[in-house]
Amino acid sequence: MNPVNISLLVFMIGLYGVMSKNNLIKKIMGLTIMNGSIVLFFISIGYRKGGLAPILEKGTTGGIPTTIFVDPLPQALMLTAIVIGISVTALALALIVKIYSKYKTLDIQQLSKER
Amino acid sequence: MSIHIPILIIILPLLAAFLVLLTRKYKIVLAAVSIITSIVFTLTLSSRVLSNDKITYHLGGWRGPLGVSLVIDGLGFFFSLIALGLGLLVIIYSIPEKRYSRTYYFLLLVSLSSMIGVIYTADIFNMYVFYELLSLAVYLLIAYPKTGVTLRASFSYLIMGGVGLSFFLLGVGFLYAMTGTLDIFHIAERLPAAFNSSMQMVIMSFVLIATGMGIKIAVFPLHGWLPDAHSMAPSPVSALLSGVTVKIGIYCLIRVVYTAFSAEMFFLINSHNILMVLGVVSLLFGASMALAQKDLKRLLAYSTINQLGVVLIGLGIGTEMGLTGALFHVLNHAIMKSTLFFCAGIMITETGTREVKGLSGFGRQQPAITFAFIVASLGMIGIPPVNGFASKWLICLAAVEAGYTILVVIILVASAISAAYYFRVIQVLFSNPPEQNHIPAHEEGQVIHKGNLFRVLPIYILAAGCLLLGIVPALGISLAKPAVSLLLSYVVP
């Protein structure tokens, strides 16, 4: 089973969590799991078996790598994606705090009954 | 200087956003000036863009496929004008409201500048980053009044929006895995080769991106967040959400479908049929749900789902006329729906209720606002002298030409239903006011002088725009023409 398939499986688990859980915090956990699976997905795209860190040393000719390198771009992208994921989570948790102080519940079924 | 205009259009509102946080007195001036400067900068590019030229700006001098570049073409120009123009009017409309502090203008400016970022960027991951920034600002704007309903609406939008953008990012990942680049124009070049070797991955990425954007556009089965978010937000924010933010989703869909996935693929995997079916379903669903609403802003929110269905049908038809109609309808809907939400904001504060029933007698008190409301709702229905008719007519013509006569029937039925719900509101506006029994409103605690110029000015401008585009539709069509010819140049290889 390759990492791409595993990451898709984890993505589905996260999606299940977001859709089926009633607790607001569990929904956010699902969203975080989805985010983590995407990170795994991108990293596994860039992975090369036996690849080294993509650092060109002095003396390599014309920037053409002589050994196998790991693709650095997905890793750079994922740093951004992780930061974005954290800010979304932080905002969601802040909203949850406000919602809890207003309604004294985190259950989405009970919240939808409130007016 | 003139080379750097594309990045300045994005950076100026963002810079102003952080400066707004420092000042208390000049926040509105600063916000308005930065947006006006961006509009002026955009307009200086108009002559080059309208003659089918493409302006490319490489950030930091790094060229594609590695670097991030900004591209302004007909499509981007069209959408950025809508976003900036309406953004300015939203700022003007918010001036009399004393409740809106510095953070409100900060969030407004961040959302506007990230919208422009989504529109101009040619890097698909950068598009995701800007879109997430836009979404964060919008979640906070919805929750701005900090009442229970707004917090809940904002949270449900956050969950749905987060899932949607995760889908989008996963789709981007598939595209990167196949082509090894994130530049949208390079993806377009390399994708046909990838399509021959791994067709399933191309379809997978298309499905993921279309689902993600479908959540943002609120097509029928994914619309759950829209009615709450659009109706509970403060009125200027509702206008921004319905008028512009949803259109950004449409822009991304058009960009990815027509540019990254070239046209052969578009027809090969039958995605035009998918768009058309989704359009029809959300058209009928939005219309019939709006019919059942008692809350004025909720009615307008469902009407948004209805009108976006029309746009999707136009995109699905995919001929020159269909695309022109769809883009023209995007412009028209932005103008009409923000007029309606601006009017609804005044109606709600004046009558103190959100119910349609409670509006009785308003038409006699404020005939000018009511006239603007009627003009815009006639446009929504699609009655000749107003702009909504012209774009619906183009889409219907395109449907007949492409041989989908059934679509015309469906659009007409939906128009009849929307006539039913808008005429219900108009009828209430002119009926006699009942005995005094005020129901407390959700948006309370504002003292706004009757006929405040800043309140009514945006409404008059937009209503005049409705009539102007209705009488001279060639104006809007000529604006949409470069975008359409651009899209079709990808279609015909």
TrEMBL record, chain A:
Residues passing through the membrane, by range: 6-21, 28-47, 76-97
Keyword match Membrane: yes
Name of a matching Pfam family: Oxidored_q2
Membrane topology: Multi-pass membrane protein
InterPro entries per the UniProt record, alphabetical: CPA3_antiporter_subunitC, NUOK/Mnh_C1-like
Lineage: superkingdom: Bacteria
Keywords on record: Cell membrane, Membrane, Transmembrane, Transmembrane helix
GO terms under cellular component: plasma membrane
Record localization: Cell membrane
Gene3D superfamilies, alphabetized: 1.10.287.3510
Protein family per UniProt: Belongs to the CPA3 antiporters (TC 2.A.63) subunit C family.
Protein name: Cation:proton antiporter
Organism field: Candidatus Sediminicultor quintus
Organism phylogeny: Bacteria, Pseudomonadati, Atribacterota, Candidatus Phoenicimicrobiia, Candidatus Pheonicimicrobiales
Automatic annotation (TrEMBL), chain B:
One MF term in the entry's GO annotations: NADH dehydrogenase (ubiquinone) activity
Topological category with respect to the lipid bilayer: Multi-pass membrane protein
Residue ranges of domain NADH:quinone oxidoreductase/Mrp antiporter transmembrane in the record: 123-418
Principal subcellular localisation of the protein: membrane
UniProt xrefs under Pfam families: Proton_antipo_M
Superkingdom of source: Bacteria
Keywords: Cell membrane, Membrane, Transmembrane, Transmembrane helix
Annotated transmembrane regions: 6-22, 29-50, 70-92, 104-122, 128-145, 157-178, 198-219, 239-261, 273-292, 299-318, 330-348, 369-390, 402-423, 459-480
GO process annotations (BP): ATP synthesis coupled electron transport
Signal peptide: none
One Gene Ontology CC term in the entry: plasma membrane
Coiled coil: none
Subcellular location: Cell membrane; Membrane
InterPro entries: CPA3_Na-H_Antiporter_D, NADH_UbQ_OxRdtase, ND/Mrp_TM
Entry annotated with the keyword Calcium: no
Record family assignment: Belongs to the CPA3 antiporters (TC 2.A.63) subunit D family.
Protein name, entry field: NADH:quinone oxidoreductase/Mrp antiporter transmembrane domain-containing protein
